[in-house]
Amino acid sequence: MTGQAHRDPFFHGDGITLRFGGLTALSGVGFHVRRNSLQAIIGPNGAGKTSLFNVITGIYRMDDGEVHLEGKRISGLPPHGVARHGIVRTFQNLEIFTNMTVLENVLTGGHLLVKYGLADFFFRTPRFFREERDLRERAVTALDFVGLSSHRNLPAGQLPFGSQRLLEIARALSAEPRILLLDEPAAGLNMKETTALGDLIRRIVERGITVVMVEHDMDLVMRISERILVLNYGEVIASGTPAEIQRDPAVVAAYLGEE
Amino acid sequence: MRVRIGGHVTGFLAFAAAAMLLPFALPNEYYLTVLIVGGFHVILVIGLNLLMGFAGQVSLGHAAFYGLSAYTTGILTGTYHWPVPAGIAAGLLLVTAVAYLIGLPTLKLRGHYLAMGTLGFGIIVYIVFNEATAVTGGPSGFSGIPKLSFGGRVVSSDREYYYVVWGAALLLFALAQNLVRSRVGRALRAIHTSETAAAVLGVDTGRYKTFVFVLSAFYAAVAGALYAHYVTFVSPGSFGFHTSVLLVTMVVLGGMASLWGAVMGALFLTLLPEALRAIENFDILIYGAILVLCMMYLPGGLAEGARKCWDAARSLARRGSAGPAADGGGPGR
Fold first, then answer.
1. How far is A157 from chain B (nearest CA, A)?
2. What pTM was estimated for this model as a whole?
3. Distances from the Cα of A36 to the Cαs of A46, A202, A243, B86, in angstroms?
4. Rounded to 5 degrees, what are φ and ψ at A182?
5. CB-CB neighbors (< 8 A) of A99 in chain B
6. CB atoms near residue B333 (< 10 Å)
7. What is the phi/psi pair of residue A166, to 5°?
């Protein structure tokens, strides 16, 4: 894995280790994501997939290892510092701002794209109105993209579950990320919704955003990902194209148990 | 498609006009005094609602900031004969600095722990007011604070003072409204529901929490300075735990995350004891019962109640006239 990392230095992690007391959640995990591709991360429950996302986004502090985006070190930054580098995520257990409308959620996603200062919002300068208008346009575009713009003025908590998942994606997109981390985006969705979600994720990649996705739905993973990384007990056990992963004996053993 | 001059501007202008005209409708000076005190509470509760209602950070020590500012300007102008504006400026500055220093460590705490931290701070300040007798006058209070004056022009009548207090309240209301309807307001509300989600979207949660904590202390400090130069006497009892709890009650009763709620909650709980004064002995019971009923039937506070009434009135008007009903905002947030 480490040898690969130098071929395309876009987004990669090396030797990522995370311990909770005596428990090692991640042990020397390396990954390497190509620009403008869709990388899936799979593995049995408790394999450390979400921990890896938490470490990348600075929610947990890794005990060892490094993450780089285009040669810049991301590891060690607080969550808002990671976001500043264009890495934005969604959550497996939805973290919608239920005290806001759908549109306000997405406007909050664009937090870093607005630069106006204290005096601008206290005294309503032209700059304030200009930037708010731009932000609003971007937010509506993001809502259109996921198909939620007709619900924009609804309280976010009133959306059905599947739409809340889409709202999280729209909120992340309005931050105009370079890397979008999706944590189990299909969890709790029915088959029809999952198919639509797969198409949506592909369209996100086509827009030039690199997507890393943790997902349990194998049909979805195999259908839309370019590369797959397999974790088990906090270690990388395989990495490759969907076809390669399906044939990998270590992966089969991890999922089905050894003979 | 959406014009920025929405319901909130109209609402504010109506509120400002009402506040400016009200003194002409009052039967006597006593009501003016009550409304001046109401103005102090409105300023305090707007600030505390920014912190509690919007950002979700509970402060049980807000009366300490109120008192610290009142005592600072009171002592500097009373004992050391500073000009009043200088004393007020010193009070505001001191409270801002203290809030910043207190905020840095305490805002790392969450939920109940933050409440306990601010509670402890409030109690310490209260003890200092009581025990530093040489400076503060101790439990019997500090008197001889000069009346409010700017460059020799003394604000002597209650009517003038009313306009000073409500001018300040309206200005601070407008600033809070502008803050709430901006990226900062959204970031604060985001912190309220999910600090983690706010942080991964790029909100520097620590900085925003410190900012809103200091800002809400500043609001309390403005109220404290106006209090000191109106009453011309300060004593520890006005700035103890009871006051902090009263302010929190005003925020919750008025409506969390609603500036209109802050105004309603502050005025309601200022006027209610005055209205109940006629029925002595039972006033506390009725006061309590009214609070319980409000919270049972209006969990969203008085602001929610007002919004419901407004919506009901509008739909009635629409049905009555069957003409083109007014569209757009409503009073909103």
1. 11
2. 0.92
3. 28, 11, 20, 60
4. -110, 120
5. 189, 192-193, 257
6. 20
7. -65, -35
Domains of chain A as residue ranges with CATH = 1-82+211-259 (3.40.50.300), 87-176 (3.40.50.300)
Q: How far is B285 from chain A (nearest CA, A)?
A: 34
B327 in A contact zone (CB under 8 Å): no
**A-B Cβ pairs (cutoff 8 Å, strict):** 90
Beta pairing partners, A230: A42, A238
For the purposes of burial, counting CB atoms within 10 Å of the CB of B57, is it exposed (0-12), middle (13-18) or buried (19 or more)? buried
Residues of A in contact with B194 (CB under 8 A): 95, 97
CA angle in degrees (0–180, nearest 5) for B118-B122-B127: 150
- Compute the distance between CA of residue A75 and CA of residue B21 in angstroms, rounded to an integer: 60
Q: How many alpha carbons lie under 13 Å from residue B84 in its C-beta half-sphere?
A: 19
- Return the structure tokens found at A27: 């042990």
**Looking at residue A258, what is its pLDDT?**
61
Which are the contacts of A240, defined by CB distance < 8 A and separation ≥ 6?
Answer: A227, A228, A248
State the DSSP code for B268.
Answer: H
3-state secondary structure of A203: helix
Chain A interface mutation, best of B96, B181, B183, highest count of A Cβ atoms under 10 Å: B183
Closest-CA distance of chain A to residue B165, Å: 20
Indicate the average pLDDT of chain B: 91
Whether the predicted pLDDT of A7 surpasses 90? no
Across residues B107-129, what is the average pLDDT? 90
**Angle A67-A71-A73 (CA atoms, 0-180°, nearest 5)?**
40
Nearest Cα neighbor of A91 from A2, A171, A167, A185 is A185
ipTM: 0.92
B179 interfaces chain A, CB cutoff of 8 Å: yes
- pLDDT higher than threshold 90 for residue B321: no
- Name the residue facing B183 among A84, A114, A122 (closest C-beta): A114
Bridge partners (DSSP) listed for residue A67: A13
- Three-state SS annotation for A111-157: HHHCCCCHHHHHCCCHHHHHHHHHHHHHHHHHHHHHCCHHHCCCEHH
CA distance B17 to chain A (A): 21
Most B CBs within 10 Å, among A92, A95, A135, A140, to test the B interface: A95
Whether the Cβ atoms of residue B155 and residue B148 lie closer than 8 Å to each other: yes
Condensed to tens digits (0 to 9), the pLDDT of residues A180-219 reads: 999 999 999 999 999 999 999 999 999 999 999 999 999 9
**Separation between Cα atoms, residue B135 and residue A59, nearest integer Å:** 48
Q: Do A111 and B182 touch (CB under 8 A)?
A: no
Determine, for residues B189 and A171 on separate chains, whether the beta-carbon distance falls below 8 Å. no
Regarding beta strands A210-214 and A38-42, do their DSSP bridges make them parallel or antiparallel, or are they unpaired?
Answer: parallel
Taking the Cβ of residue B266 and every Cβ of chain A, the question of whether any pair is shorter than 8 Å is answered with no
Which of B175, B189, B197 faces A95 most closely, judged by CB atoms?
Answer: B197
Q: Which positions in chain B touch A89 (Cβ < 8 Å)? A: 200
B66-86 per-position pLDDT tens digit: 999 999 999 999 999 999 999
